[in-house]
Amino acid sequence: MAATVEIDEQNGKPDSPTLAITHNLANTNMGSHGAANLDPATYPIVPGSNSCDKWQLVHVTNMGSSTRISNFKVWRSGSLGANAVHMTNARASDYGGAQTYSTPATTTSTLANQVMPTGSPASANLGIGGSLSGVLTASGYSDFLVHQIQTTPQAIAGSTTTMNYQYDETA
After folding, report:
1. Is residue 60 a contact partner of residue 137, using CB atoms and an 8 Å limit?
2. Does residue 87 contact residue 139 with C-beta atoms inside 8 Å?
3. Rounded Cα–Cα distance for residues 64 and 37 (Å)
4. What pTM does this model have?
5. Which of 45, 63, 138, 140 has the fewest CB atoms inside 10 Å of its own CB, making it the most exposed?
């Protein structure tokens, strides 16, 4: 039996009693508010501003018959247009390690400072335990995937892209 894997998202203030992880997201829509399963029509990104940054995790909830999960890769397919860029902390080299959760914001992210790949990376670009060579041998989480859409005033609303997640599973 294959491992069971989901994408989770954390929102809220770190010191708040309402800080919560939303498990098994229905979507990773980006918008002007920090919320899981966001409706972008309700919270649009105004041209010339940023989306609220997303703090997401790949969560292995059950190893099944697998003995190890490794090599997390994340990328976006589809075009945002010439006046928007999707930024992330995911990178295959000079990885910054595990990030400590911070309240999502629309200010330009200092962590999401690498352009999100638009094709499958050749190697891991999201770590486990702070390392791109990290391995899960039991249920657990990837490092945080921090990502944000940044736009210019000339950006046009309505772009749709797809987030892709991949990992290696060893039986």
Report:
1. no
2. no
3. 27
4. 0.95
5. 138
